[in-house]
């Protein structure tokens, strides 16, 4: 008997009809001798409105809050009415929903009175998205006459540190509790439905896991329950060789290694955050990305061992837009220990993430890629802090019309001539490369070109490595 | 101190007897600020009189203390509200749910208290979880008394063999079953007769299941595997077989080969097992009576065997004292280092 954790994202549970579809997917698999635990995200868009109202609550009035909760209640009630048919179950779920929304209203009113939103209270507000969606999925499964039970992440036993907004699980303690609480249910064939994203610290205060979100919850649950696979149901077929908007012939990748999948996080929100992969990597549990609207497709399987037959050197190519290149130069940096540290220290203290770095052994300049929106702040802070300070930095310059091209594949490691093929391809197009970086893991070569050339470069590389025939 | 049975009373008696030395030799001057037994609690933030505690316990419960007794107070309330550095948890073992000891220990961690326990239940069922929670709360969890009683088996492997890699552990870890098997082999009596004799001498409980079905041994294997070999195991990972089916005939046949049968708990690689095993009589592990013995197979130092009594109130209490001294030493380092920063 297979044990599987299935996670359903926001679009999968966007409407009542979708939720019914989700319930039928779960129960069909349960009928096929699978033990299933379900993890659900908030209804599409709800988490964002909760973030907004939480920010607004501190300076708005009760009327505004009531209008918001009324709208949220209506949205969920409408979903309930189409997600399940039994009046009895509808009534049960409606009661839970009304009670939960009443609690939310109190919390928001509290924030409104105090006029302050702490990370702790923000996590509490954000938890309502999943606390409202999970009972509906639970109801829809119950509606199909399957035994099921609904849990918040806290009730399921996910215990985290107190780093609100970005909490990390105490994995061993969590495993112990989940095993005690959900393990016996799963053995009996009951389907536990667990809220994604939210957990609690050891004192029972609600936390959220931040980056990785509900996917992270799913992998935590998968490890704790010792499942055979974790299935991430989403609205795409799997992980693609590149953005199909750039290359219409882009292919779905049937299999990837954990490392490759982690490298592809930069492909955007449709791919799992590396943080969410961490628990399953340690326990070697495969993850499958599947399309909830095309369950007949097998999706992308992420495992420890990449497909042994796969000989492709390059598996995917991506373009990262909305970035800028920052150059810091100065003869004073040459041979001066700690000079780079000073540059990164300034950026770090101003909360600017550096995505890519390149520097030559001559040490006279260092190039970095950062988010474009942060460029102004980065330049002024670097200039204020370092320009002419003991002659360390003589110039800070930037280019904001660039894009990063990332070429990935586990088999690139140790294969000779990959870089040469990539750069020859780019050169043949008459395109200049501004900056290059390859980590010693050799899974990824990243380089920078002018943004206007990005699409052409992605297409050329996709073609050069025959990614449409993968 | 939560639980004031033979181990707890052993500890107060050692502390009374050795007070001068512990202060002089170890700079250790402990105060027991609260004791909880089945009748309630006795609390005095300036330290309870150990002599008086003993006297009260002889009459019934420490909660009967006129000045400091709190007959209705629960252990959880005491752990939560009383200010102390360390909780000594010495309640009886429960291998089904590990409660209430598991809650006591987690409550102590959450309120920033170190824990010394002699209770195998919480460790056998949730050791990876407890060590993680202790680390997270920056407190120490010590449990020398759970394996080998007063014989420092855990410390031997963890401290004396530091740097070496322990590849396997094999041991006779339960005195009751060893007594029974020794009686059967030497006096040629049946399992039932040997068990009855063990019960008469107080070596075995009225319900001997924990011992003769191998559960106690399995708990100790789990603790050693986690602590010494860094495995993440719990009781359910152990393959357990007790000694009820060991026949006189099997013992006789083993004897003909110069061997005997012992209940051996072992972990070799990833497979923890407890089962009656034939071993040579001249194997250093082959101890008789209620003695315990454990052999550590280490990568460089080879095989070492440590032998000693595996249970008893005073013996286990001495292990608690060792743990308390260890924590005291670590706390002193912490304080001194943070002052110099």
What does this entry look like structurally?
The complex is a heterodimer of chains A (470) and B (341). By secondary structure, chain A is α/β, with parallel strands linked by helices. Chain A folds into two domains: 2-234, Acetylglutamate kinase-like (Carbamate kinase, 3-Layer(aba) Sandwich), CATH 3.40.1160.10; 316-469, 2-Layer Sandwich (VC0802-like). Chain A is built from 15 helices and 17 strands. In chain A, strands 3-5-2-1-8-10-11-9 form an eight-stranded mixed beta sheet, sandwiched between helices. In chain A, strands 13-14-12-15-17-16 form a six-stranded antiparallel beta sheet. In chain A, strand 16 and strand 17 (444-450) form a beta hairpin. The longest helix of chain A is centred in the N-terminal third of the chain and has 28 residues, at 87-114. The radius of gyration of chain A is 25 Å and the shape is globular. A six-stranded mixed beta sheet of chain B has the order 8-10-9-7-11-12. In chain B, strands 1-2-3 form a three-stranded antiparallel beta sheet, with no helix packed on it. In chain B, helix 3 (75-81) runs parallel beside helix 4 (101-110), helix 4 packs parallel to helix 5 (120-136) and helix 7 crosses helix 8. Chain A binds chain B through residues 161, 170-173, 175-177, 202-203, and chain B through 106, 109-110, 125-126, 128-133, 136-137, 232, 234.
Query: What is the fold named in CATH at topology level of the largest domain in chain B?
Result: Rossmann fold
Protein chains sharing the most extensive interface: A-B, 10 and 15 residues
CATH class of the largest domain in chain A: Alpha Beta
Q: What is the oligomer described by this structure? A: heterodimer
- What overall form of chain B do the CA principal axes indicate? globular
- Overall pLDDT score of chain B: 93
Spatial strand arrangement across the major sheet of chain A: 3-5-2-1-8-10-11-9
Number of distinct helices of chain A: 15
CATH superfamily heading of the largest domain in chain B: NAD(P)-binding Rossmann-like Domain
Distance between the termini of chain A: 33 Å
The level 1 CATH classification of the largest domain in chain B is Alpha Beta
Radius of gyration of chain B: 21 Å
Using only CA atoms, what is the Rg of chain A? 25 Å
């Amino acid at each position: 008997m297979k044990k599987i954790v299935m996670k359903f994202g926001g679009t999968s549970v966007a409407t009542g009809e979708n939720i019914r579809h989700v319930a039928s997917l779960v129960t069909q698999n349960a009928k096929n001798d699978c033990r299933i635990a379900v993890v659900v995200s908030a209804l599409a868009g709800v988490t964002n409105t909760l973030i907004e109202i939480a920010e607004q609550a501190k300076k708005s009035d009760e009327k505004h809050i009531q209008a918001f909760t009324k709208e949220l209640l209506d949205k969920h009630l409408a979903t309930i009415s189409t997600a399940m048919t039994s009046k009895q179950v509808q009534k049960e779920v409606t009661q839970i929903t009304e009670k939960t929304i009443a609690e939310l209203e109190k919390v928001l009113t509290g924030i409104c009175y105090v006029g302050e939103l702490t990370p702790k209270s923000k996590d509490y507000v954000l938890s309502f998205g999943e606390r409202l969606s999970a009972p509906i999925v639970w109801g829809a499964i119950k509606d199909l006459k399957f035994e099921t039970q609904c849990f918040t992440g806290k009730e399921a036993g996910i215990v985290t540190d107190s780093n609100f907004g970005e909490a990390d699980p105490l994995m061993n303690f969590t495993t112990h509790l989940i095993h005690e609480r959900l393990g016996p249910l799963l053995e009996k064939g009951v389907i536990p439905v667990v809220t994604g994203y939210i957990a609690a610290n050891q004192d029972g205060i609600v936390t959220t896991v931040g980056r990785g979100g509900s996917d992270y919850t799913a992998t935590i649950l998968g490890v704790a329950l010792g499942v055979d696979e974790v299935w991430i149901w989403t609205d795409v077929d799997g992980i693609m060789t590149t953005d199909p908007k750039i290359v219409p012939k882009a292919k779905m990748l049937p299999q990837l290694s954990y490392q490759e999948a982690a490298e592809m996080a930069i492909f955007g929100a449709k791919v799992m955050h590396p943080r969410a992969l961490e628990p399953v990597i340690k326990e070697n549990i495969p993850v499958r990305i599947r399309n909830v609207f095309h369950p007949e497709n097998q999706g992308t399987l992420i495992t420890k061992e990449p497909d042994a037959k796969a000989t492709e050197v390059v598996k995917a190519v991506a373009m990262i837009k909305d970035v800028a290149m920052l150059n810091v130069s100065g003869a004073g940096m040459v041979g001066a220990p700690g000079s780079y540290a000073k540059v990164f220290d300034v950026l770090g203290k101003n909360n600017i993430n550096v995505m890519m770095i390149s520097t030559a052994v001559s040490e006279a300049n260092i190039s970095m890629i950062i988010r474009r929106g942060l460029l102004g702040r980065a330049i002024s802070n670097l200039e204020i802090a370092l320009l002419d300070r003991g002659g360390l930095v003589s110039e800070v310059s930037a280019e904001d019309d660039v894009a990063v091209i990332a070429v990935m594949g586990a088999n690139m490691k140790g294969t000779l001539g990959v870089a040469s093929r990539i750069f020859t391809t780019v050169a043949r197009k008459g395109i200049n490369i501004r900056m290059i970086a390859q980590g010693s893991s050799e899974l990824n070569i990243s380089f920078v070109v002018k943004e206007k050339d990005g699409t052409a470069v992605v297409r050329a590389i996709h073609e050069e490595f025959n990614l449409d025939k993968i | 101190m939560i639980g004031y049975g033979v181990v707890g009373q052993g500890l107060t008696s050692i502390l009374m007897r050795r007070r001068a030395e512990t202060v002089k030799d170890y700079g250790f001057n402990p105060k027991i600020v609260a004791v909880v037994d089945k009748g309630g609690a006795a609390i005095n933030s300036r330290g309870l009189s150990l002599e008086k505690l003993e006297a009260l316990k002889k009459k019934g419960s420490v909660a009967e203390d006129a000045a400091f007794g709190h007959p209705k107070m629960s252990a959880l309330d005491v752990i939560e509200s009383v200010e102390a550095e360390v909780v000594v948890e010495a309640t009886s073992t429960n291998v089904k749910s590990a409660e209430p000891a598991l809650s006591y220990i987690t409550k102590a961690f959450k309120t920033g208290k170190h824990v010394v326990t002699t209770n195998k239940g919480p460790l056998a069922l949730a050791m990876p979880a407890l060590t993680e929670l202790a680390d997270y709360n920056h407190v120490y969890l010590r449990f020398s008394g759970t394996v080998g009683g007063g014989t420092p088996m855990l410390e031997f492997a963890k401290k004396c063999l530091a740097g070496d890699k322990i590849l396997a552990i094999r041991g006779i870890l339960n005195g009751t079953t060893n007594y029974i098997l020794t009686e059967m082999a030497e006096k040629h009596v049946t399992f039932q007769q040997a068990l009855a004799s063990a019960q008469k001498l107080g070596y075995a409980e009225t319900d001997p299941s924990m011992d003769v079905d191998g559960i106690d041994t399995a708990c100790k294997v789990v603790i050693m595997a986690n602590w010494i070999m860094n495995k993440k195991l719990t009781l359910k990972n152990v393959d357990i077989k007790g000694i009820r089916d060991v026949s006189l005939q099997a013992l006789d046949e083993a004897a003909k080969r110069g061997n005997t049968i012992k209940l051996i708990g072992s972990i070799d690689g990833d497979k923890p097992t407890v089962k009656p095993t034939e071993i040579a009589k001249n194997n250093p592990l082959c101890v008789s009576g209620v003695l315990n013995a454990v052999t550590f197979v280490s990568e460089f130092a080879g095989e070492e065997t440590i032998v000693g009594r595996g249970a008893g109130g005073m013996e286990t209490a001495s292990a608690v004292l060792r743990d308390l001294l260890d924590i005291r030493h670590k706390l002193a380092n912490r304080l001194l280092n943070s002052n110099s920063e």
